[in-house]
Amino acid sequence: LDSIDWILKEALLAYKKINRKYTGENIYDVIEQIIRQFQLEQKLFIAIIDNDPNIVKAIRLIEISHTGG
What SUPFAM superfamilies has UniProt attached to this entry (predicted)? Predict the structure, then answer.
């Protein structure tokens, strides 16, 4: 959000190729690297529209690691 006008903004922070098996754990590892790279640990909000089981698992792992459950 733009703090003056409260306009929702979006940006692509990173585009990473996963050179390992396409699993929830490996996707989680890549997303965690990006979160740390941009220091987003305390500013994290994720919304997904992809219901691929591996994506869903990766997002659940992120929720657990950042919210404790």
Answer: Ribonuclease H-like
Residue that the structure tokens 């529209």 belong to: 49
- The residue range of the domain holding 57 is 1-69
pLDDT in tens, the chain (69 residues): 556 777 777 888 889 888 999 999 999 999 899 989 999 888 766 666 778 899 889 888 887 776 665
Number of structural domains found in the chain: 1
pTM of the full predicted structure?
Answer: 0.66
Distance CA 54, CA 51 (A): 8
| Nearest to 26, CA basis, from 64, 60, 54 | 54
